[in-house]
Amino acid sequence: MQNENSPSSSRHHKYNNNSSSSTTTNDSSCCCDTTTTRITSSPLAAAKYAQNFPWNHRPRPQVFDPIHIRLGKESPPAKACSCCLDWWNSRSTFLCCLYPLLIRWSHHSSIMDMKSEKILGVKEEEKGTNDSTVLIHNDDDDEIIAMWKKQIVNHPLNSTCPESMRGLWWLQWDHAPENLVTIFSDCEWIGIWEDDDDGHDENFHNDDNNNNHNDDNVPPNAHLKGYGMWSRRLKYNWSRDDSFLGLIFAIWAANRSESRFWGRMNLKDGICTIHGKRGEGIQVVYRVTDEEWWKVHYSGNPGEPNDQTIEYMYKWLKVLDKDGNPTQHWNTYKQWTEEPLPHPGCGCGNYQSWWWPLWACFLSKSQVDENMCHPHYRQLVNFRV
């Protein structure tokens, strides 16, 4: 990715994606080939492609509602499987005897331990072979913060990201076993945008129930303008729970060299999309503040039946800012990793539920999903730098 205009001189940016990991095409009239997921190297073509998306087709959500938790549904066979074997829980120790082998297979270089406040590092040499496990001691979480700060500040891709979007993000209320991600800082940006950030954003407030609202429908990212495409690899700087399901996610991401997501970006309105198997308009991410985005999954693409119906919703909360300093959400994340699960079921509900694999048999699907949203205190991470 190249910066064709100096940020310090004009605050106007055009970016080319010259990464060897992306396939480029010289056809400036088409940015994305949906059959081969090609991305053009032309910022102008990427901007035009993004502008073609119907950004105003849906109203911006006004109240946060993790509807996938509230309306949890599950078929009887799936319920039976979940009850009989606790393989899905974020704190499950199912098949824990295989974890050392699975961790090696996942090629994740470190285990971040929030409880003992240590980083367990699995060193990977340049030759691609795994060396022995090493232990990095620290007196508090400064070592963990310092490691993430290194990822945020030192990686070249970070300089191509708008300042307000840089940092480490927690995927709160997502029941997938993934938690901390340098989402935007590790992205490849292709498009045209300009940043006139004045450091202030007064468009949103919290009501008595701590629900965010947009007061006057003013674009929440008014200091940013521009359109384009963005993509991010799933392998690096993306933590997974140190559990059976978390390891499955880690192995899948690490052993597919081109595992990544793609999407459009509309920085003026603070909206991004993520392409998926069901289409390019199902997954939409809305900016609320500099420290909060809402990821929304709809039942249909724009123009399809039920395209206004929300079926999944969770938050991206910034826990470390662009300089690697903790935000107001860092301690909340730590608290979630340490406190017991909200629905203990038949077990004790924290990290010792291994003693009876049927411990969740009396929980509803909503209770199971809410438990899955609470992170493990140990996170598998493949740090990039």
Give an account of the 3D structure:
By secondary structure, the chain is of the alpha+beta class. 19% of the residues lie in helices and 29% in strands. It has helices at 7-10, 43-51, 67-70, 76-84, 99-106, 142-154, 244-254, 330-338, 365-372, and strands at 2-3, 12-16, 32-33, 38-39, 110-113, 118-124, 130-136, 168-172, 178-181, 188-195, 204-206, 212-214, 224-233, 238-241, 260-266, 271-276, 279-289, 292-298, 310-320, 378-381. The protein has a 16-stranded antiparallel beta sheet, sandwiched between helices. A hairpin with a 2-residue loop joins strand 17 (279-289) and strand 18 (292-298). The two termini are 18 Å apart. The relative contact order is 0.20.
SSE layout and pairing:
Blueprint: E1 2-3, H1 7-10, E2 12-16, E3 32-33, E4 38-39, H2 43-51, H3 67-70, H4 76-84, H5 99-106, E5 110-113, E6 118-124, E7 130-136, H6 142-154, E8 168-172, E9 178-181, E10 188-195, E11 204-206, E12 212-214, E13 224-233, E14 238-241, H7 244-254, E15 260-266, E16 271-276, E17 279-289, E18 292-298, E19 310-320, H8 330-338, H9 365-372, E20 378-381
Antiparallel strand pairs: 1-2, 2-10, 3-4, 5-6, 5-20, 6-7, 8-9, 8-19, 9-14, 10-13, 11-12, 13-15, 14-20, 15-16, 16-17, 17-18, 18-19
Helix pairs in contact: 5-7
